[in-house]
Write a structure and sequence with these properties.
The complex is a heterodimer. Chain A is mainly β. Chain A contains no helices and eleven strands. Chain B is mainly β. Classes of the chains: A mainly beta, B mainly beta.
């Protein structure tokens, strides 16, 4: 099946710094990628929809200046958490839509962010 | 509003069969997905239904009735590794995924 790779899987950063998470579709081109956040024992929360070559569409309540999304190519989207705070600590998951496989969504492995 | 309902938790015995139900009310329908998520990991794709009926894939099957706004995921010959959360998601008329809260499945020996 289709593979989506997310990196890093775990990252610890200091408060006030920025951290970048990469999401790559390895064997298909993804014009649309999604970024989710998941709190413990909670369902996935969509943060933004990333479209290749255009600005991301953010969900209500998500700060676009804090969570910078760049979808520079058909296989790569990045999420940058800027000026991180401890409350940004969470599990961040990306997914990509495969237009050749009935628009099925495939997920990356997720990235655990801990801000200390 | 849009709503996806799944049971919060289910318990089943190793080797048995379990059916996880999902009902939905969404603005439009463009397919229903089932995902498996082990604790601390990202979801993995299990099945996709867009037409009514049963889709079988090994030990897992998924059923859809669009007229009833209803789907189920059937797991046969349960194994301990099947202990996980199972997420139902519907693609609405805007092709946005609407997520259920997930069903935590506990398998007992």
């Amino acid at each position: 099946g289709a593979v989506v790779s997310q990196h890093p899987s775990r990252v610890i950063c200091k408060s006030g710094t920025s951290v970048k998470i990469e999401c790559r579709s390895l064997d298909f081109q993804a014009t649309t990628m999604f970024w989710y956040r998941q709190f413990p024992k909670k369902s996935l929360m969509l943060m933004a929809t990333s479209n290749e070559g255009s600005k991301a569409t953010y969900e209500q309540g998500v700060e676009k200046d804090k969570f910078l999304i760049n979808h520079a190519s058909l296989t790569l989207s990045t999420l940058t958490v800027t000026s991180a705070h401890p409350e940004d600590s969470s599990f961040y998951i990306c997914s990509a839509r495969d237009g050749d496989r009935e628009n099925t969504i495939y997920f990356g492995e997720g990235s655990w962010l801990t801000v200390v | 509003g849009q709503n996806i309902d799944q049971p919060t938790e289910m318990t089943a015995t190793e080797g048995a069969i379990v059916q996880i139900n999902c009902t939905y009310q969404t603005s439009g329908f463009n397919g229903l997905f089932w995902y498996q998520q082990h604790a601390g990991e990202a979801p993995t794709f299990l099945s996709y239904n867009v037409l009514d009926g049963l889709e079988e894939k090994g030990r897992f099957s998924s059923f859809l009735s669009r007229s009833k706004g209803y789907s189920y995921l059937l797991l046969k010959e349960l194994q301990m590794k099947d202990s996980a959360s199972y997420l139902c998601a519907v693609k609405d008329s805007n092709y946005q995924l609407i997520w259920g809260a997930g069903t935590k499945l506990i398998i007992k020996p």
